[in-house]
Design goal:
Blueprint: E1 9-10, H1 13-23, E2 30-34, H2 40-47, E3 51-56, H3 59-68, E4 75-79, H4 87-91, E5 98-103, H5 109-118, E6 123-131, H6 132-139, H7 150-158, E7 159-167, E8 172-173, E9 180-187, H8 194-208, H9 215-222, H10 224-229, H11 231-237, H12 248-259
Parallel strand pairs: 2-3, 2-5, 3-4, 5-6
Antiparallel strand pairs: 1-8, 6-9, 7-9
Helix pairs in contact: 1-2, 5-7, 8-9, 8-12
């Protein structure tokens, strides 16, 4: 295990079986696996007769897995850092929409999520094992209090979300210091153009950058001109509220009013 890449290898087959069930993996599915490690999930996917492309950053693990599964005609190993791919390059792995099934290294889960958000129209589903705290943030709603934030809103923009099940540290070698969980995401159609969606999410990030401040203070900081233009309405509508108290629909309503104005 290389600490450099935050790898913890899943060793309990029953959790692999649960992942495949959640992902509804079937014969001839096209699968992108990220961080295959020692290949316990890879082999299970191949046993389902799926087409598997596995992207592994660790050269040693890549060589070991390539040798181990060299006779598998439906297996394509790739030695690369998945975060170095553009969304367009990730799309090009398969000509048709595909599934992502993976035990993700903890340290890439959040940045990878935002990359996958951009290409969700080319995905059938995402079923990934991540740190439980991250899974809870991805699936959080406005009622979840501290877990609710930018990641939650971005996930709700792009996906139907489900925290499928949890996994204890004992299921890994070496065991991590935290619990893990599997999230299952089904892509939603975009409700705004891609460029505008990106602006919306950057605007959301700005409103959450200083969570302890009121929404009005953050609006004044992020969109000062629009705040002054609509000050009377905003003070009446959002008095003493914080960003974490607004639902996605309320954020979108507010963005339509002032989000495009600096």
């Amino acid at each position: 295990m290389s600490k450099k890449w935050g790898q913890h290898f899943l060793i309990e087959p029953n959790y692999v079986d649960q992942m495949l069930h959640v992902a509804q993996v079937d014969e001839d599915d096209c699968i992108l696996e990220i961080g295959p490690g020692q290949g316990i999930l890879t082999e299970a996917l191949l046993q389902k007769k799926s087409q598997v492309t596995a992207v592994e950053i660790d050269p040693k693990l890549y060589q070991q897995l390539s040798k181990k599964l060299s006779q598998q005609k439906k297996f394509t190993p790739v030695n690369q850092d998945v975060l170095q791919y553009t969304p367009q390059e990730l799309i090009s792995f398969y000509p048709e929409p595909y599934k992502i099934v993976a035990n993700l290294p903890y340290n890439i889960a959040t940045p990878l999520f935002f990359k996958l958000l951009e290409l969700r129209e080319h995905l059938l589903s995402i079923t990934v094992m991540v740190q439980k705290e991250v899974a809870e943030r991805i699936c959080a709603t406005v009622d979840s209090r501290k877990a609710y934030g930018v990641l939650s809103i971005a996930a709700e923009v792009g996906f139907e979300r489900k925290l499928a099940f949890s996994i204890p540290p004992s299921a890994f070698a070496p065991p991590p210091k935290v619990d893990s969980a599997v999230v299952h995401l089904l892509p939603k159609a975009k409700v705004m153009p891609a460029e505008k969606e990106a602006v919306f999410l950057r605007w959301i990030q700005g409103l959450f950058n200083q969570r302890r401040k009121t929404l009005l203070n953050n609006l004044q900081r992020c969109t000062p001109l629009a705040f002054q233009t609509h000050k009377s309405y905003l003070e009446k509508r959002y008095a003493k509220q914080r960003a974490e108290t607004l639902t996605l629909s309320e954020f979108m309503e507010l963005f339509a009013l002032i989000g495009d104005v600096k």
